[in-house]
Each structure stands twice: as C-alpha cells, then as structure tokens.
Amino acid sequence: MEVFLRNKTILRSNLTSHDMVSDGMPAMKKTLIFADLYGNILYTEKGGQVMKYNFYGGNTVSCTPIKDTYKNIHSPQALYDLLCDIWCVDTCAPRLRQEWTPENKTKGQCSITAFLAQDIFGGKVFGIPLGGEAIHCYNVVGEQIFDLTSEQFGEKASELQYKDNPEQFREIHFAKEEKKLRYEYLKKTLEEYLKK
Q1: Residues 78-120: tens digit of each pLDDT
Q2: How far apart are CA 90 and CA 163, in angstroms?
Q3: In a 10 Å sphere around its CB, with 0-12 CB exposed, 13-18 middle and 19+ buried, how is residue 121 labelled?
Q4: Predicted TM-score of the model (pTM)
Q5: Torsion over CA of 108, 113, 115 and 121, rounded to 10 degrees?
C-alpha cells in the first residue's frame, strides 16, 4: 500500500482482485482511497470511477481483514462493492422479498451481511430493535461502527440509533434454518467470487 499526502488528503492505493487473465491468475484492479489526515475516508476511485459510500460509516470506517482467506477484501467498502454483485432476492429475508429490488439490494440482508462482515473484520454484531421481533444488525469493530445495509431504509436511515443496542449472536440468528442457509450461500458465493 502506498500513502501520499496531497492537499491535506491521504491517498492510499489498494489492490483487489476481480478479473481473470488467461493464465488463470487474478488480474488486479487498483482502488484508490482518498482519506483526510485522520483516516476518514472521503471517497474511493475504482477503475477511474469515483465511489462515495452511503451506508452508515461508509466514509469513515477503516479496518482490515483478520483472516488470510479474505486478504483481498481490504476494507468494509471493498466488501460492500463485492456484495453489490452478490446480494439478490435469494439472499433477502423471505418476509421482505416482495420489497427487494435491484435498486435496493440491501433490503433484507442485514443479519447475514453483518455476520459475514464479522467473519472478515472481527468485532461484534449489534441489533437495533425496530418493533415487534424485527432487529436490524450492524457491525462494531473496536470503536468503529458500520452498517453495510443501512441504505435499505432510504431517508429513514438517518433515524437509526447505533448506541446502547443489544449484542447479537449467530447461534440465535442461525437457529432459523432459512437464515443460516442464506448466510452460507452469501459466504460461499463471496469466496467463489474471490477465487475468480
């Protein structure tokens, strides 16, 4: 990783694999991450395209994978980019599938995504009570909070409270067989995508 100071901005160059080349080895596309001097991510460029993240914590969170399996997923932003190609109606919670659209890919994806992000970056998963039995899951790694699926709430996302919420445990969530199977499908698809 290279770090440059430019007009009070840190430019970090990270490599992620996305394309195959003829010899079977992944080609590397460069992702540029622009951050302020405090490490807050301002925006990223991928393939010359500027990426601004709208998920909660998307422009401030900075953590790295805890396992070599996921070493090419250099940040939650990189995970989000990959999941945008993977989230689908089949990974959406069954009760929300009628509301899922390609324009709202994060709909019904919170718990399986949060537990997958925990596999990659460590930390804990917490849940915001939404009324009834509904809980919206998000991640906390150290002092950093991020919610890869907050966009599903549209303008109401700003009303979500990310403090003093109960910790969530996969043993409880995955007691529901359908949720466990959706998580396993998401994880397997991500791992296959990383091998390309």
Answers
A1: 999 999 999 999 999 999 999 999 999 999 999 999 999 999 9
A2: 31
A3: buried
A4: 0.76
A5: -160
- Which two structure tokens, joined as six digits, stand for 163? 């403090």
Question: What letter would DSSP give residue 127?
Answer: E
3-state helix/strand/coil string of 138-194: EEEECCEEEECCHHHHHHHHHHCCCCCCCEECHHHHCCCHHHHHHHHHHHHHHHHHH
* CB within 8 Å of 182: residues ≥ 6 apart: 90, 91, 92, 93, 112
DSSP class of 20: E
19-28, 38-47, 133-142: the lowest-pLDDT one: 19-28
Can you tell me the distance from the alpha carbon of 10 to that of 142, in angstroms, rounded to the nearest whole number? 22
- What are 156-175's pLDDT values in tens digits? 999 999 999 999 999 999 99
Q: Which helix (H) or strand (E) holds 33?
A: strand 26-36
